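I have a small job for you when you get a moment. Can you supply me with one protein entry, sequence and fold together? It will help me judge whether the discrete encoding reads sensibly. Write everything out right here, beneath this request:
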Amino acid sequence: MRRRLTALVVSAAVLGLAAWLFAPPAQAATGDGTPSDPNIAFYGRWETTNPAAVVPHFAGAYFVTGFTGTTVALKQRDTIDLYYSIDGGADLYLQNVRGTVSLTPSPLRAGNHTLRVSYRVVAGSYHGDAVFQGLALDSGAKTIAVARPAKLIEFVGDSITVGTTSSKNALTAYGWLTGERLGAAHTQIAEGGACLVSAADGCVGMADRFLRVNTAAGSPLWDFSRYQADAVVINLGTNDVGHSVSTSTFQSVYTQLLRDIRSKYPRAAILALQTFTKRYAAQTEAAVQAVTAAGDRNTFFVPTDGWIPAGGLSDSVHPNDVGHQAIATKLVPIITEKIGAATTPPVSTSPSAPTSAACAVTYAKTSEWSGGAQFDVAVRNTSAAPVAGWTLTWSLPAGQKITQSWNATTTQSGVSATAVNAAWNGQIPAAGSTAFGFIADSGLGGATGFALNGTPCTVTA
């Protein structure tokens, strides 16, 4: 009897140990800044096998969160290059940082803030060790949730989609720019040098890798239940010519990719771009025709003739910043037509009406091309009180028209222009800043009369 009782006790102990070993990890406390903190929103494909150290894959993966207090730092496992933005400000670049990486060399004003971090990617492989182990905050501070965009757009491609040769890589590529202008979440499932077809000479085939966590051969399949795209933009075929991919094989594999995307994203609009070099254009269009003939009415072939202006390439293939901006300018209205406006749910603020504030504005034309120009606007709150909701007004030069904007909603009546904060950047802490940008149909200068919530601003052009 004693032997039997002992066996039962041992069995129970073993079962208890097994239950502990195989139980899912406990949910992190909301607001604690660990990688599993639900207040941290991850966009793109992040590997979360180890919930204490998560890893982004493919270009353009990023995370967004809010936080309280005056300082914030990243906990990085090893050396990495990254971009970060606080309170909607410009994306700042850090190189060769590791360990506890301070993002606030000068403390912020006490209050609520927002943070976005993106790790730099080079030819599909992160430059350094992109292992995020959490945030370090002030004693007593916590993370806070930020409203998530209502739409998500996925961009599938090669080095052009990665943003190779542009000034900030993924952050200045057409996919990132398009998502930002639409106020949508965005992902870039791309690798430099990739083909559509997995070639015998080793060219990575994105038709297969689209289904996976990363670009390594045989990597685990991605769990598509983690997010659903509202639109998927494909730009593949530029590299296949150099890897002896036949036109018949290309068309067959492209058709299967379209079917795979549809099976994973049943409601998404799928846009198959004609490559800017026009390689495999006929086969791309034929693949679209094959799936539409089979009943898919939400997949489209998109001609791209003339999308990249003169001076828009850094070499014979890769767009520079001007080229990527021009591509985004073409894509935004096409995507808007297919999926509607990508609006973000409003953030509740108190008071509900914008508060007045002293301010300083930096207004700069950052690029120009035939028929258009980009302007970036930084707004700094120079008062001692935070701003809860903001509206910036100013006068444009006569004859200039705003055609697109991002990080703010812009309207225009004659020469009078108005920009209203997006949901995620409505609060500007005392001495803090935010930024937005827009495209106009000309590069005319001479904007005047800037005012933040009715209070005139000093201006630096």
